[in-house]
Amino acid sequence: MKDRMTESQIVAVIESTIRAVNMDVELKQESTGVNMMYDFIKDEVIVDIDRVQKACQELSESMPLETYLRVLTIHELGHAMDRNALLDSLDRTKEIILMKKLAAAEKRPTDLPLMKALIEEHEADIAFEETAWANAEILNSYFGIVDGGSFAKVKLHSLSTYREAYEDDLRIYNGFIYTQEELLSV
Q1: Is 4 exposed, middle or buried (0-12, 13-18, 19+ CB in 10 A)?
Q2: How, if at all, do strands 44-47 and 26-29 pair?
Q3: Which residues does 5 contact at the CB level (< 8 Å), separation at least 6?
């Protein structure tokens, strides 16, 4: 496996990046299935050591794992810079999670209130992601963490995953709305 780093090397890169931008956010290791994330409730960055290495290999153009780790870290710190907005969204997020739990899986594509909530959730996620990337770009330009090309590649790859999920649900939602309008016009 190319560019494999040990667990302690990965942790050292992430922690040195956090220090390099003068932020005080704790790092926690956890097997979450997500390469790296920011827990805004606990104000900590969480890294899945195995997943982050696999995710780096999934980029369309390869880059050193260390560079990838630094980009992801400043992105997660970009979320930390937006922590108050994330905390403000918590009540609505809980409502949507409850709606998803209560909806039967096979009925979800025809549950209009749930589909509206899912679209709202996607739009909020994308807005938070774009804000975190904008904040990360500020950090990167000020502190010079990584080159702009590498930053742009990881940003594009990351945002595409959110947009693809949104577009999939939006197609279902729009198809449902179209079907309802057709039924009403008969």
Answers
A1: exposed
A2: parallel
A3: 13, 53, 65, 66
For residue 39, the model assigns a pLDDT of: 97
pLDDT tens digits, residue range 73-120? Answer: 999 999 999 999 999 999 999 999 999 888 877 777 778 888 899 999
pLDDT greater at residue 12 or residue 173: 12
Is the Cβ–Cβ distance between 154 and 71 less than 8 Å?
Answer: yes
Strand partners, 26: 44
Contacts by 164-168, CB closer than 8 A, 24 or more apart: 165/122, 166/119, 166/122, 166/123, 166/125, 166/126
C-alpha distances out from residue 165 to 1, 73, 111, 151, Å: 29, 23, 18, 22
